[in-house]
Amino acid sequence: MVGGSADGWTLHFYDFRRRFVSVNDVVPGLGDVETWAKRNGARDGTPFFLDPWGRADALVNAYWRDPLVRGRATGTLRRYALSLKVWLDFLHAMGIRWDQASRSELAAFKEWRLSAEKNPQHVSANSFCVDRAAIRSFYLWAAEQHGIDNPVRARVIATSWLGGGQVVLESTPSGMRRADVKWLTPQAFRLWRNLGLRGFTMEGVPRHDWRGATEDRDIAFVEGLFGTGLRIGEWSSMLTIEVPKPGSEGLVRSRVASYCAKGGSGRPFWMRRRVAQQVHFYLQEGSRTAAIARAQRAGRYEQSADRWVVERVRRDGQLEVVDATGSRRTVRLDALGPSARMKLFRRGRDGLEPMWLWLNHDGTPRPKHSWYKTFDRANTRVAKALAQVGGTPLWCRPHMLRHSFALRWFCIATFVAWRRTDMLTKQEQRDFRNQLGDVWFLLATLLGHRSAEVTRSVYLEPFQALQVEELIALMDADDRQSLERLVATVGVGESRVLTVET
């Protein structure tokens, strides 16, 4: 298990890639701890709580092993576990057992998290609602399984005299935002990337003290987010066999596995050739090969207690693997989540090699949550560089790159539709768009949204009223040149479109 501790409760997360220490000298006859943990429902990443006196709380830990709970996304489990720890620590400071908490304690918790003077770290209303969702989920389970009262209550607010009503949760804070959406233009992204991840100065040259041991990895990762629109959990869980090889086409295609996609809905995605080239360089020639060599020399992969060696990748998406005990099995690639993917290996010329694409400097798989540290460090470097010249503040979070991807393609789709229908009558424009489909459905497909309304109202709402010329100004030179060539191609054979040979 790995994790951190603080005053109050202690939170760990199971990591079955590491070997468990025998405790027979402490608890004679207990046997293999790892076997016991797995038999009790623990998986890679399952939270494990110790109370303030160092004892495991059976009910709290049983919640995380419930099949309906452990089936959630790894990131959700981790975020909910951290929220529950904050709640348990608060109750401990109040001198109240978690199974005796009431609505009053929840109200006090809300005040403490959002506005109490004695709390030096207030959170946003949206963050508190995540905490409340974690608490509510835990107590719904505890109420059903053990009859414990749920401090998070729901009430109905009447919305019409006919009896209509809306169910809302108590302790909902004011100032809730539907979404915190921000964008980077291509120019702003390049500046952030160069200052934060390439060690450049504002003059565009590398700093003399810049080391950049994993620069190619970090650049490929953020360029991938910016160039594919994938969520960080989807992009960070890629395997080497899922990376498309760069060819002559401007866009290459791959697929997000269902178990790694939000909502369990796998889908295709497209990657610009330049991004594919950067990822391919990291994979074949960059720091990844050096990281693997270091791990092989240290025997790190051979010592992995829970590894699957892939012997064959079948065309139907099935993997034939041999586990650490020598047993053979066949697994479906589309059904493997991040924790299972981290233990996939192949035998190379110099020994075992991980199939997980993104690796730490020591050759171990780099999980999703570690990438937030990369962004934090980059933001610190950018802030320092801009402060020295009095520049406008600039920062980036992973999901901002997804928003920025959407903005880029919105500009492209709007421009193409505008140029394609510019000389048509109003009726012809309506007929054309009915046949071609709205740009929002294109964007929803690229982003993996089930509803185009989410794309329209959340991701790109501020840009809907902009004129085409203003949208073009948001694109970089490469996009504008490509669009001109695209429009010329679209206009071939159309008598009303005048073109010249180039």
Task: Describe the protein.
The chain is α+β, with helices and mostly antiparallel strands. The chain has 3 domains: 2-152, no CATH class; 186-370, no CATH class; 398-490, no CATH class. The chain is built from 19 helices and 12 strands. The strands form 4 sheets. Strands 10-9-8-11-12 form a 5-stranded mixed beta sheet, with no helix packed on it. Strands 1-2-3 form a 3-stranded antiparallel beta sheet. Helix 8 (215-228) crosses helix 14 (398-421) and helix 14 packs parallel to helix 19. It is globular. It starts with a strand and ends in a 12-residue tail after the last helix.
Low-confidence stretches: 1-6, 158-162, 432-437, 465-469, 490-502
Major sheet characteristics: 5 strands, mixed
Structural class: alpha+beta
| Gyration radius from CA atoms, angstroms | 26 Å
Mean pLDDT: 81
Helicity level: 40-55%
The helix count comes to 19
How much of the sequence is in beta strands? 5-15%
Order the strands across the largest sheet as they lie in space.
Answer: 10-9-8-11-12
End-to-end separation = 63 Å
**Total number of beta strands:** 12
**What's the number of domains?**
3
Overall shape = globular
Subunit arrangement of the protein: single chain
Domain Core-binding (CB): 55-143
Pfam families: Phage_int_SAM_1 (PF02899)
Keywords: DNA recombination, DNA-binding, Plasmid
GO biological process, one term: DNA integration
